[in-house]
Specification:
By secondary structure, the protein is an alpha+beta fold. The protein folds into two domains: about 15-255, no CATH class; about 280-454, no CATH class. The chain is built from 15 helices and six strands. Strands 1, 2, 3, 4, 5 and 6 form a six-stranded antiparallel sheet that branches. The longest helix has 21 residues, at about 175-195. The protein is globular.
């Protein structure tokens, strides 16, 4: 069992929640019922079916959990391919015709259960729309994150032709205006079809797609910042932004920059091909009870405070093995120590930038030119009072600890190692993993950082 990363969602809350509610109302549902449908459509990205971090670990590496991997396939990468199985057998086709992407929603349309509570039926309809919508953003062959440690037979990453596994580009509507329009159109068609088979749920006549809706969806798709999306929703007086009850701050968590044009940059000349010989093996599929590793927990807490709260670069760097940390991100293996320090700082800094959409726009800080030349500290940074308010784990604790064994690739062979998994509150679509290692000469150090886009 290896240790890996994975992506388990696609279109973000502006589509799954915001646009779905708008489309449901336009199709003829009441505002109340449209909210229930939209809430259901957002649920697979909110850990309602499974805990997101746990699903990633268990489906692609920790335990090679076939059931969890299959949930990812059904709800986010719809295909008839089997898990485990090669990515080439799990190609996702948009739901233009009846296929794996339409299977769930068509069942909801055809189901007529007189004793089924309406709220339950609407929530189920929303969940069934999720894979249909994701079939456009995830179309193609799933990519394999961090391929040297990832099981390709279980992994689901953003396809290469839509930006690849380490970026959120597959999720951003302004980069895929045509796909956004098709997603909205086929969502609308399924919603109207549902009302044909469940006419008692109709509140008002449907609006015409061609004459009144398609142009508005086009303007929605073009919005390339959080402000642009918010402006679009504020114009929808019949579906007011204030009516979005389940996730009222959904536009704050999408991976678009806050505004457009407030930071000038030039994209780098190419992405760094990640390379590493480090292989991690899980000791136990369950998180370690933190009281059983007090020295490791104390080190992690000190590191988090120095890195996230104090933002003390010098103190943070004393707790990192920069040569190991930077290893996967440097093309030239004969790099200088100064270069490894620069890369390490760049990678650590990018997680403290408050506008994570801007970080994604900059290639997560890892386009070749940016890694060495971009000063991410010039961008506004998060200002949490405690690291516990800045991050969260899969449960009540701010991070999860997994005991791992390390095979090769590090400058010092550790006698103990843990994977520390968490997500940032300001970047909830990304899961982050720190590898901390211990040896007698150096004590505890942060040896690597990995992430995947959710």
């Amino acid at each position: 069992m290896g240790f890996t990363t994975c992506s388990v969602s696609a279109w973000e809350g502006d589509v799954h929640y915001g646009l779905t509610k708008w489309l449901a109302f336009k199709a003829g549902f009441s505002l109340h019922d449209a909210e229930l449908i939209a809430r259901g459509a957002e649920e697979p990205d909110q850990g309602k079916l499974y805990q997101a971090i746990s699903a990633v670990f268990m489906s692609a590496c920790f335990g090679r959990d076939r059931d969890r991997a299959d949930l990812v396939r059904v709800y986010h990468f719809p295909s008839y391919g089997l898990v485990p199985g090669p990515p080439s057998s799990r190609i996702v086709d948009p739901g233009l015709t009846n296929n794996a992407a339409t299977e769930l929603v068509d069942k909801e349309i055809q189901t007529s259960l007189p004793n089924r509570p309406p709220d339950e039926a609407l929530d189920a309809l929303g969940r069934a729309l999720h894979p249909l919508q994701d079939s456009w953003s995830h179309q193609g062959e799933p990519d394999s994150p961090f391929p040297w440690i990832c099981s390709k037979d279980y992994a689901f990453g953003h396809p290469q032709n839509r930006g690849g596994w380490r970026k959120h580009d597959a999720d951003l509507t302004f980069l895929h205006e045509g796909d956004t329009s098709q997603t909205a159109h086929f969502t609308y068609l399924k919603l109207t079809k549902f009302l044909e088979t469940h006419p008692k749920m109709r509140s008002h006549p449907a609006e015409d797609w061609t004459t009144t809706l398609v142009n508005q969806v086009t303007e929605f798709a073009k919005a390339s910042s959080k402000k642009g999306k918010r402006d679009w929703f504020n114009l929808q007086s019949d579906v007011p932004l204030s009516s979005y009850d389940a996730y009222p701050d959904f536009l704050s968590h999408i991976d678009l920059p806050d505004t457009t044009g407030n930071y000038q940059f030039v994209r780098g000349g190419g992405e760094i091909p990640y390379q590493s010989s480090v292989i991690l093996w899980l000791v136990d599929s369950k998180p370690v009870a933190q009281k059983t590793a007090p020295d490791a927990k104390e080190f992690v807490d000190r590191f988090m405070n120095a890195w996230i709260v104090a933002r003390d670069t010098e103190r943070t760097m004393t707790m990192v093995n920069a040569s190991d940390f930077s290893q996967p991100f440097i093309i030239n293996r004969l790099y200088k120590r100064e270069q490894s320090n620069s890369v390490t700082r760049s990678i650590l800094d990018m997680w403290l930038v408050a506008d994570h959409g801007r970080v994604n726009e900059l290639g997560h800080g890892l386009d070749q030119e940016h890694t060495f030349n971009l000063d991410l500290q010039k961008l506004p940074r998060i200002k949490p009072e405690t690291f516990r308010s800045a991050i969260f784990g899969s449960g009540a604790l701010p991070y999860d600890m997994y005991a791992v064994k390390v095979e090769g690739g590090l400058s010092q062979t550790p006698d103990r190692a843990y994977a520390i998994a968490f997500q940032f509150q300001h970047a909830p679509q990304d899961a982050v993993v720190l590898l901390i290692t211990h040896n007698r000469l150096q004590g505890w150090r942060v040896s690597q950082l990995m992430w995947w886009t959710l």
